[in-house]
Write a structure and sequence with these properties.
This protein has 5 helices and no strands. It is an all-alpha fold and 141 residues long. It has one domain. The longest helix is centred in the middle third of the chain and has 31 residues. It is globular.
Amino acid sequence: MIDFKINVLAFFIVAIVNFFLSWIYYSPMAPWFKTWQIGVGADINKKEMTDEDKKSMPRLMGGAVIASLLYAYGLQIIVQSVKATDFISGASVGFVLWFAFAVTHSLNTQFEGRKPIVLLINNGLYLVTYVVFGGIIAVMK
């Protein structure tokens, strides 16, 4: 049976940490940042945002916040529904979800002309978040 009840604290912890972890993961301080920029076709010499970039930022950040909230909600429902009650079982659920959904959907970005390195970099973040947050949600049940 699907359990739609959520632990509000776990929900907000996962959503907020996911948002900021993603922000850091794709920031210039990450060792793979330039490789990722090249992989997505960004100008690596660009130092400042254009006016057009600045105008799109609220939409992009708003979308990232919504995505983090949906991610936290969906992951919590699945971890709870399979009755994961310890970190290892929650992390295992997270791993299966990552492998079955995040990896498979990410493979479709190859049709967009993305370089394989982008797939690897993006899925590094997805793997960490699915596994760690799956474990945290199980423990905070």
